[in-house]
Every structure is written in structure tokens, then in C-alpha cells.
């Protein structure tokens, strides 16, 4: 994180989301394959999604109420106040996402993937992750008015996490927010082919990537990129 006194922010309440949804295999020509429905219902075989989520699980159930008496730079949670958490998404310590992409894509498709801004992730190594550290850090989040930033109090100092810090950590070229409104009601052949019958969720993307028979290199790489950004972090 970058220590700075400029800028002001509150991030919204912390939400943890995971979707456990039954899915069907789909080949690249759009035909459903009902022979194996187990691939994406509970996430990766390495346990990347919790297995005991109810079918009607809603991330809104875990939304934390914000106190009405908060002033700028106050802690969201009073000292000693703790919120019990449950890890729904486990980190890819074994780099299973990168391994799956490398094994699923053909040589030509991997070359196309390397030409994207995410290409260097194919060479990434397993990264240790301390979920308790993140959980404790979230207890130290402070209230401020910039929704695009999160600030945390450690000792007597406030520290910022924003797009700039994310860019430093990830190595991605982050230049600001994209206007997604122009895509809202626009037809998309890729989405129509693979997600016409369901909501695009973490587990849905994983299942489509792992079990689709891609005949188009372009679509294979698009799905690989979507799989990376939805399942790696």
C-alpha cells in the first residue's frame, strides 16, 4: 500500500460472493452435453469454492450494516468489535487457474493469450495468501468519501488501496474506469453462445472454459481471459 494523506473515500460494505449453480456442458457449436453436469456446480476440484453453500445463497446476506454515527476517517468497526467471516473463495496457491489455461489452450491459442495484457500470468508462480491478514485488515477499514478507494488504519496512520496500488501489485496497466454502459444492451455473439441460458458467475465461467470444445481460437482465448480475471483473484 502507499501511505498518503491526500484523497478521501468510503468503500462500500464488504461483500463475499460465491455462486453454486448447476450447469450443463456446452460444445463450441452451442449443443448441450448432458453427460457430465458436475464440472462447474461447486467450483474447482481443488476446492476453489466452498462446497456447503445453499442453492439459494445470496451475497447480500453477508452485507455489513454501516453505522449512522460514522464520521470521516472513523473505523467502520469499533475497536474490539469483530465480524465472523467465512472464506468462500480460496486463493489459487497451487496456481491451478494458470495450470488449467496452459493445459487447455493449444500452442497457437497460448500465443494469442500471451499477446493480451494478461499474457505474463502464464509464467506466474504459486503465491502464498494469508486470509486472516486480509480479514483483520478489513476490520481496520476507515470511512471516507471516495468510493473508488479503500483506506485502512494501522497504528495511527491511514493507508490507501486504490487502482494505483492495484496496478503496482498486479503489474497491469490501469488507466482508469471504463464506460460499460455502451455494452449493456448490445448483442454479443460470444455471450450469446456460451451464457445465453445463465448468469455469468465465477463457477459458470470456470465450467464453460474447462468443458467447452472450442473450435474458434478467438473464443477460446476470450474465455481463457475471462476465466483468469474471474477465478485468479
Automatic annotation (TrEMBL):
<feature type="compositionally biased region" description="Polar residues">
    <location>
        <begin position="1"/>
        <end position="12"/>
    </location>
</feature>
<feature type="domain" description="DUF1985">
    <location>
        <begin position="138"/>
        <end position="231"/>
    </location>
</feature>
<feature type="region of interest" description="Disordered">
    <location>
        <begin position="1"/>
        <end position="56"/>
    </location>
</feature>
<protein>
    <recommendedName>
        <fullName>DUF1985 domain-containing protein</fullName>
    </recommendedName>
</protein>
<dbReference type="InterPro" id="IPR015410">
    <property type="entry name" value="DUF1985"/>
</dbReference>
<dbReference type="Pfam" id="PF09331">
    <property type="entry name" value="DUF1985"/>
</dbReference>
